[in-house]
Amino acid sequence: MQPHQNQEQLESYLLEHSVLDREQLAIAKKMQARQDGPLLMILLQLSFIDLKQLGGLLDYAAQFRADCM
């Protein structure tokens, strides 16, 4: 899976599991475009997720990256 597809999958997960709403995701993606950084770090910086959520999301992201290797 390409990085772009990985982010799309992560975005879908965040919305489907009510971690974020669409407005928060849009704000984070705008900031990500300006800073060119990983979405999860942007979400943490914006306080849209906390450290506990970050850990779980990193585990989730690692799982779907491993599935495509």
What's the topology here?
Layout: H1 3-16, H2 22-35, H3 39-45, H4 51-67
Task: Please provide a written account of the structure.
By secondary structure, the chain is mostly helical. The protein has one domain. Helix content is 75%, strand content 0%. The protein is built from 4 helices and no strands. It has helices spanning 3-16, 22-35, 39-45, 51-67. The chain is globular, with a radius of gyration of 11 Å. The N and C termini lie close together (8 Å). The mean pLDDT is 88.
Descriptive keywords:
single chain; 69 residues; mainly alpha; 4 helices; 75% helix
The gist of it:
By secondary structure, the protein is mostly helical.
Helix and strand content put the structural class at mainly alpha
Binned, the helix content reads over 70%
The total count of helices amounts to 4
Beta content comes to under 5%
Q: What count of domains describes the coordinates?
A: 1
Count of distinct strands = 0
Shape: globular
Largest sheet: none
- If you compute it from the alpha carbons, what radius of gyration comes out, rounded to the nearest whole angstrom? 11 Å
Calculate the mean pLDDT score and round it: 88
The end-to-end span amounts to: 8 Å
> SSE order in H/E notation?
HHHH
Report the uncertain regions.
none
